[in-house]
Amino acid sequence: MTRTNKVRLLAATALVSLAAIAVWQFAPDASQPPTLAEVISAPATTLTEDLYPAAEQAGKENAPGSPVRTFNRMDKDSGRLVASFTTNNDQTAEAVFYQDDGIGRSYLIDLYAPLPGDAGPRQKGIVLYAADGQNPNSEEWDRLNGTAERIGHSLGDGYYVVSTLFPDGQTAETEQTWAPDMFSNGHAPKLAKEQRWRSPEEGHTIAYTDVLNDDGTREQRRFDGIGHVVMQKHIPLRPPIGTTVKIFFPGSDNVRLESTTDWWTTSAKEYRLDGTLFRILTLRAASVDARYFDATGHVPLFEQTWLKRLNTVGAESDTIGSVSPQFGRVVLSTVVELNADGSSRRVTSINEKGAVTNDMWLKYTVDGVIYGRVFFWYREDGTLSKTELMNPPGPDVPMKTIEHSAAENIKVVLSQDLRVPIQVPDELPVPPDNQPTGGH
Would you say residue 128 lies in a domain? Predict the structure, then answer.
């Protein structure tokens, strides 16, 4: 028997028990336990009549989703609450049955709205509660066609397993194991383990795992269709500081990306399939730097700086990069062309519309004279407005400013290769906005 079938068997056993309780509640004068036929028919007979009394519902009009009818059933001798029934305006309904104290829940039945031609409403969900009357002991939630969509059951000691199922109602799509956490706010449970599978049509192979370690750290992995790890992520006790990520080429053990995160940056190295360094990404709270390398992986070519933006000005231009969802949208701000030793040769500033605003060239030759810095300033229409020759080679060579008219129509050319958009993998965490004070 598969793990999923075991879970289904546990849930089914609990649900039959629930249905038996329901029939007994609705037939208090019965001298014998209900038969299986009575158990199966209970939600479509007595329960339906309680939730859908036609005479009382006729003519009522309420806002969509608001209760049409809610009432409590009380024990005639003790006055304790036995059950509560709610029928909504869309004809979905819920019945909650209580324990002997009239406070804790015993079980819950959720129903779809009745469909034309059906003898009664179809069951959407049923939940059996633990002795505390608050936490589920087992549950099943079904699709409208009757196949199970989500099931869950307790493992004891506060652990609970929830599985979602593919449309066949039998094959596990995801499974999560939740553990008690006495240190969390409100003692909310923590995810101890998660697994995700591909569809049966894709072979039902494992696609993702998330495991909580004993020391509170976490290991996440993604797999390709043949079982190779394509991503592994270590999450520390207090993320994102200390998070490491490694991504592999599909079907290969070759590393495509590896990253580390500290208080200030996430630094990621990306590699080609042959192992040479392709790019280094540096993520900060409000920016991303990308440094590109030649085919050998040793010679830097250029570096981009992308700034985080709240708006989408220039969204149609190629200066907008698509990055990880947790980072948001960015706009290309600066391109630095590099010498072989990594020093800067040219620094180009770009506005949010994608237009070059100024160029700074280092050690640039004009009329045979090498200036330390030469600035080219551009108008909004892209034409050159001014040239500044700065840092001359000696005191006998003056600095110069040359004005240019729009009629000269001198425009800058920035290669599209230097504007290449970035795509930051979703797995990379962004460092926090609030950095520690004091020394490094």
Answer: yes
Per the document, the length of the chain is 440
* Per-residue pLDDT at 316 exceeds 80: no
Are the beta carbons of 314 and 331 closer than 8 angstroms?
yes
Distance, in Å, from the CA atom of 201 to the CA atom of 185, rounded to the nearest integer, reads 41
Q: Is residue 43 part of a domain?
A: yes
- Residue that terminates a domain, selected from 83, 111, 134: 134
Which residues 6+ apart lie within 8 Å of 349 measured at CB? 333, 334, 356, 357, 358, 359
Residue 354 has pLDDT above 90, yes or no: no
pLDDT tens across 156-202, in order? Answer: 999 999 999 999 999 999 999 999 886 666 667 899 999 999 999 99
pLDDT over threshold 90, residue 424: no
DSSP per-residue letters across 8-35: HHHHHHHHHHHHHHHHHHH-TT-SSPPP
In a domain, 270, yes or no: no
Report yes or no on 323 lying in a domain.
yes
d(CA 194, CA 173): 11
User: 70, 102, 134 — which closes off a domain?
Assistant: 134
Are 67 and 90 contacting, i.e. CB atoms less than 8 angstroms apart?
A: no
DSSP per position, 308-366: E-SS-TTTTSTTEE---TTT--EEEEEEEEE-TTS-EEEEEEE-TTS-EEEEEEEEEEE
Which of 212, 208, 214 lies closest to 231 in space, CA to CA?
Answer: 208
Q: Which range of residues forms the domain containing residue 121?
A: 1-134
Cis status, amide bond into 64, omega within 30 of 0:
no
End-to-end CA distance of the chain: 56
Q: How far is CA 118 from CA 42, 55, 112, 168, 304, in A?
A: 15, 19, 11, 22, 64
* 78 C-beta neighbours (distance < 10 Å), count: 10
Q: Is 174 exposed, middle or buried (0-12, 13-18, 19+ CB in 10 A)?
A: middle
Burial label for 192, CB within 10 Å (0-12, 13-18, 19+), is buried
Q: 3-state class of 186 per DSSP?
A: helix
Domain total of the chain:
2
* Predicted TM-score of the model (pTM): 0.77
Q: Residue 20's pLDDT is what?
A: 38
